[in-house]
Amino acid sequence: MSIDFANARRVFEESTDFTVGLEEEFAVLDAGSLALVPRFEELRDAAGADPLMAESIAGELISSEIEIRSGRGADLADARARQHERRRRLFALAVERGIALGATGTHPFSDYRDQRIIDTEHYHRVEEGLKYVAWRNNTFSLHVHVGVRGADRAIQVCDRLRPVLPLLLAISANSPYVDGRDSGLHSARTQTFTKSFPRCGVPDAFGSWSAFEQYLDFLLKTNSIVEYTQVWWSVRPHLSYGTVEVRICDAQSTAGESDALAALIVACVAQAARDVEEGVPFVDPAPRLIEENMWRAIRHGLDAPLIDLERAVEFPGAAALERLLAWTAPLRAELGIEVALPELNGAQRQRRMIDAGAGIEEVYAATVRDTRETYAQEVIV
């Protein structure tokens, strides 16, 4: 297989700034035990009678996971409205079939060895290429696509978002459990997925479309990949959509948090794009420096001291949101974007329950209850 680089570049040159697409991944659960159950195909087939849902539901590696997609919204408000309706219909389908849906970065206690890879050419290829690494990846995320016009500009936006990724991870951390135990981490999902998959995590800074294209051409020529979707970076240009796709965040247990986090990501992409346009000075931090903050976000989330990479001093992780809001204030004002996140994120709330003596099943049941009560709402807020 090959990549049509000329077409991909054309897609970006013709893209529209700040269109938005949302992708939310959910665990498919037995409604009683809240264990993972392989019923994606059942939900997909049931959704086939609804044209809106038929085009919005997708599989993600294992049969106990389902993704719901907004499609391209003209802006954030449009994408949210589209996604809210799709959420409502998905949760209704699940309830009709006695299925629960969970939204944390990992499933706390279901054994990855019991999960089945879905029957698609792409995921069979992933399994064959990665084996244990693929089998082990029972993780759930929020992905946000933001339209960026111009191929070089899109690459430079990705470059500027590299040091932002650990802050977004700290804010979104929501997976303290994995393999039936408290991992001691705030984002076990990131350790399981991002630190295991090849071509994953924080990408290099490329500077230009030509340098990016040369790298992909190298991967193809050396039989490292056969399709672009085998590049799993935490931020990447999407060659089919003309978007910058941010993929660093854990799935969020409440709809309000998912909406607010998506708004923050849109603001970050838009502000980076404007900074590129206006020539705002920027020096790409060395990967080793960004990795220091990535580890702190994985381990301690918002409870971590993060590092101001320019000044080489620590700052409280709890200030990550404040810093991103200050940076994005111009574009948030221009685009009418509001971000309202709770004081404690998902990992912190779960850890408060753990510290109070709650068991793994009790903690997870509370997150599933929050998910059901917020994502299934019909009213758009």
TrEMBL record:
Biological processes per GO annotation: modified amino acid biosynthetic process; proteolysis
Keyword Secreted set for record: no
Query: Which EC class is this protein assigned?
Result: ligase
**In which domain of life is the source organism classified?**
Bacteria
Q: Matching Pfam families, A to Z?
A: GCS2
Keyword terms, alphabetized: ATP-binding, Hydrolase, Ligase, Metal-binding, Metalloprotease, Nucleotide-binding, Protease, Signal, Zinc, Zymogen
Tell me the cofactors it needs. Answer: Zn(2+)
Q: Which GO terms describe its molecular function?
A: ATP binding; glutamate-cysteine ligase activity; metalloendopeptidase activity; zinc ion binding
List the catalytic activities from the record. Answer: L-cysteine + L-glutamate + ATP = gamma-L-glutamyl-L-cysteine + ADP + phosphate + H(+)
Q: Which GO terms describe its cellular component?
A: extracellular matrix
Which Enzyme Commission numbers does its entry carry? 6.3.2.2
Its biological purpose is as follows: ATP-dependent carboxylate-amine ligase which exhibits weak glutamate--cysteine ligase activity.
| Family, similarity comment | Belongs to the glutamate--cysteine ligase type 2 family. YbdK subfamily.
The record ties this protein, via HAMAP family, to: Glu_cys_ligase_2
The protein depicted here goes by the name Putative glutamate--cysteine ligase 2
